[in-house]
Structure formats: structure tokens, C-alpha cells
What we know:
Elements lengths: L1 H7 L3 H43 L5 H6 L10 E8 L5 E3 L9 E9 L5 E10 L18 E8 L19 H6 L2 E2 L4 H8 L3 E7 L18 H31 L1
Helix pairs in contact: 2-6
Amino acid sequence: MHLKQFLSQWSLKKVIVLIVTLECIILTSSLGMWQWSRAQQKWALEDSIEQMKAMPSLTQEAFLALAQPHEALHRTVVLRGTWLTQDTVFLDNRPLNSQAGFWVMTPLRLNAQQSVLVQRGWIPRNSNVRTELPPFETPLGEQEIVARISEGPSKMFELGATEPEAFKSLEEARSLNIRQNIDAASFAKERGLPIVGNVIQIGSNSEGLRREWPQPASTAFKNVGYTVQWFALSLLLVALYCWYQIIKPQV
Length: 251
């Protein structure tokens, strides 16, 4: 009897409110779970990167034997070869500690058939003469470097070959091999080089180059924050429904 009286008091409006509230709770809870899964994925990726960095360095032979260099992404490798100085390029708009500068990219010829594109280090930009490159050294003869296998330099916004306002002309920038971005496959075709991958040279500063490479910032905490927000909204919806649809009508 009490159940019939309770059901008779329910109107279509209350039913609609209940359905909408349940749908909103399911939606916000699902979004919270998705954000939590994204945070877990990022933590797992960060752990795998650290594990790869901690592994023993690959030899040059082991590196060249990889079907795809990405199989050992972030792992260190010891390479021997000669610098192709004439093919050095400078990636613009790569600041270090808030100072404008360039990343120096030079191919390293490992043998007659294989080369790697090396992100060698950072040099500052002359704020007065923007096309003037500071001096740095490129040793002659066979060199040995320790590097970390990379996907390649991060991509920057590009307008043409470089930012027009930074130079008197785009041709001037091209003549200095200054550019915004570089892709190993495209660069290999451009220069006729057999480039097999990208690496980042690590170790102490030398040759006039700084190797204080920025570490990728963890963004998992953002997903955790979003998770808390979505679940908090779910709880708020439950609280509002209970107050306005159950408690308040009986007061």
C-alpha cells in the first residue's frame, strides 16, 4: 500500500529529472574513469622511458641491426663515425633557460651506407645580428659519441622555411641552413644521405655546444586533476538530486 501511494505521487516531471540526473552521473563518472586511465597510461610510458634509459648502452653494431630504431627508443648507444660538417643545419626558436638559440643538427656517417642525424647541442642566438651564428667546433676524423635514440626534434610552428621577420630574406636563412623543423627522411632525400635514424648526443658540454636537454614534463597530474573534478561533479549531482527531490519536499 505504501508503495502504491509513493508511486502515485511521482509525476512525469520527476521521472524525467531522475533519468536526466542518472545520465549526467553516468557521463561524468565515465569521463572521470577515462581521465584516470589516461593518467595511468602516461605513468606507464614514463616508467618505460626510464627503464630504457637505465639499460646498458647499445653498441653501434646492435643499433644498426635494429629493424626499426624506434624499437629501442630512449636507449643510449655508442656510435663511431665522421661528422658531415657541410650538412649541418640549425633549428631556430629552440630556447634554453629562456635564452633564444639554435639546436645544432649534424649527420654522422657511420659507414659508406649508413648515417644518423645527430642533435649535437645548443648554441645561443645573437640578439643584435640574428643571422650571425656563434662559433663552435666540429672535430675532424673518426669520432665516438654517446647518444640517446630519438624520434627526432620536436616540431615547431612553421611559416614557410622559417619566420620571415627573423631574417632579411628566406633565401638568407636557407643559405645559412637555418630552418624551423627537420625530418630525417625528407632531409635524407634533400642531401642524398642514407640516414637510418635520429639520436641526441648526451654528456658534458663541449665543442662550444651545450647539452642541457630539457626533460619532458609529466602531464599525468593534469589528468588526475580532471579525474577529481569529474567525480566531484558526479557526487554533486547525487547530492543535489537527493536534496531537491527527496529531502526538501518532505521538509
